[in-house]
């Protein structure tokens, strides 16, 4: 399914690798984009860097770009707005379309769809800024238990996310998250291993890659442990075969329900006491840095980093037929 031997790099035309942008995840995107650009160029693709924070998107049309590899993360790149602009320009792009991108970027909307379809995801509360009085914040642990995970629902790369271990931690966690969003997501803490599972492809042909178990120092898979530290461990084959298959099937269902295409990566928690997986979120423009998980998983099935980039680029398309 992922054989790239028949892909002619020259036939892909002039390619823009979109990276940088203006979201909080700009530093990560710069790393992802640099890797993708170098990989595509090494295979003979006519690929060029393009930073939407520095140049108008109309330049893609004016300069004759034929397709775009989206290596942007976060708002303005992963939330459907860029995808909509590319649809208007008629330039095929990698990854999910407008609606799936918009839904997946919003952790609240994603969770509501999964809950409606009976998929397991942690119990949660959603509160807007004006509802977050000190009195209301103090009651949240009574409803969800402790610890509580506090998240801005429209950010990635762990920006603004924290774990409140006790009542006294709640206000600080809320203030941190409010620096990124006006609506916050509070989730029960699922105690157990953190997992991630990538998906390549579309619809019923989509395939889940091997599951990765993440072991970060202190159990805190934050920005430092994701992108800077070399101490985080990424384990393949750590789950029993039947459990691995269960996680992959769950992730495929979650991916298809959101209407994702091309590629994506789901993050999950595995509850220690009963080995039940819980979906956290779906990433539709996953990282492609040296620490990123989709390339690590693809390598397990014989698809190295440059070939993964080439395969993804060849899948670029528009929502409209």
From TrEMBL:
It catalyses: 2 D-alanine + ATP = D-alanyl-D-alanine + ADP + phosphate + H(+). It is found in: Cytoplasm. GO terms for cellular component: cytosol. Residues 111-314 form the ATP-grasp domain. Mg(2+) 1 binds at residues 267, 281. The keyword Ligase applies. Mg(2+) 2 binds at residues 281, 283. Pfam families: Dala_Dala_lig_C, Dala_Dala_lig_N. Its EC number is 6.3.2.4. Keywords: ATP-binding, Cell shape, Cell wall biogenesis/degradation, Cytoplasm, Ligase, Magnesium, Manganese, Metal-binding, Nucleotide-binding, Peptidoglycan synthesis. The active site is at residues 25, 157, 292. One of its GO terms (biological process) is cell wall organization. Pathway: Cell wall biogenesis; peptidoglycan biosynthesis. GO terms for molecular function: ATP binding; D-alanine-D-alanine ligase activity; metal ion binding. Its cofactor is Mg(2+); Mn(2+). Binds 2 magnesium or manganese ions per subunit. Belongs to the D-alanine--D-alanine ligase family. Cell wall formation. PANTHER family: D-ALANINE--D-ALANINE LIGASE (PTHR23132), D-ALANINE--D-ALANINE LIGASE B (PTHR23132:SF23). This is D-alanine--D-alanine ligase. It comes from Inhella proteolytica. The gene is ddl.
């Amino acid at each position: 399914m992922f054989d790239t031997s028949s892909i002619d790099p020259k036939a892909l035309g002039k390619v823009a690798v979109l990276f940088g942008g203006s979201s909080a995840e700009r530093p990560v995107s710069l790393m992802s984009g640099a890797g993708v650009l170098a990989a595509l160029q090494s295979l003979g693709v006519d690929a060029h860097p393009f930073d939407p924070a520095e140049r108008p998107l109309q330049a893609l049309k004016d300069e004759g770009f034929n397709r775009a590899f989206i290596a942007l993360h976060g708002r303005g790149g992963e939330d459907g707005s860029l995808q909509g602009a590319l649809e208007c320009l008629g330039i095929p792009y990698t990854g999910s379309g407008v609606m799936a991108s918009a839904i997946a970027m919003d952790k609240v909307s994603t969770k509501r769809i999964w809950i409606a379809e009976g998929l397991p995801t942690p119990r949660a509360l959603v509160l807007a800024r004006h509802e977050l009085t000190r009195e209301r914040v103090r009651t949240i642990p009574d409803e969800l238990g402790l610890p509580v995970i506090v998240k801005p629902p429209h950010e990635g790369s762990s920006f603004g996310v924290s774990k409140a271990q006790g009542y006294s931690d709640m206000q600080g966690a809320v203030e941190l998250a409010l620096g990124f969003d006006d609506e916050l997501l509070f989730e029960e803490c699922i105690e157990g291993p953190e997992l991630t599972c990538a998906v390549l492809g579309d619809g019923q042909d989509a395939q889940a890659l091997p599951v990765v178990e993440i072991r970060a120092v202190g159990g805190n898979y934050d920005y430092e442990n994701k992108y800077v530290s070399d101490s985080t461990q990424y384990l393949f084959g750590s789950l029993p075969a039947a459990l691995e298959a269960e996680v992959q099937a769950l992730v495929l269902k979650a991916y298809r329900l959101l209407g994702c295409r091309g590629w994506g990566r789901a993050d999950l928690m595995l509850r220690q006491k009963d080995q039940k997986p819980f979906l956290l979120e779906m990433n539709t423009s996953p990282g492609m840095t040296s620490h990123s998980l989709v390339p690590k998983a693809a390598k397990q099935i014989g698809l190295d980093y440059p070939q993964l980039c080439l395969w993804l680029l060849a899948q670029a398309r528009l929502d409209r037929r």
